[in-house]
Amino acid sequence: MLNENSMKKIAISIGICTIVFSLVAIAFTVVTYRNTPSDNLELVYIESVSIEEPLIKDEETTIMLNGWLPNSCWEYPEHHEIEINTHNKIIMIYLWAANHGGICLQYIRYFHYNISITFPSSGSWSIYCNGKPIQVTVFD
Question: How is the chain split into domains, by residue range?
Fold first, then answer.
């Protein structure tokens, strides 16, 4: 049987475990809200891809991307990657934004992002940004 002294020790142990568990949960929450953008990048939704024409081979051109971020936990896009397949004349653009998650204001935010690119050859090119396509013609 448990005596009064044993019951007190058990109650204190349970109380200490509860406090430790709460502190771990709070620390995890703080770390979750303080992640750096590079830790939680996600591809963003692209509504439109446009480009100023005429396009001339070996001259720098600006590709304009417009899209939406789903809530206030997303930062405006700052990270992109470009893959150019000269054989098939395809340009793949990947645009990411940091999503911090957590409790966020729920509203859609519009963004505009520009990327400079030079077409290495003339002809018909396909450009895809996060799956959104556009066809262009590049002249000599």
Answer: 4-34, 38-139
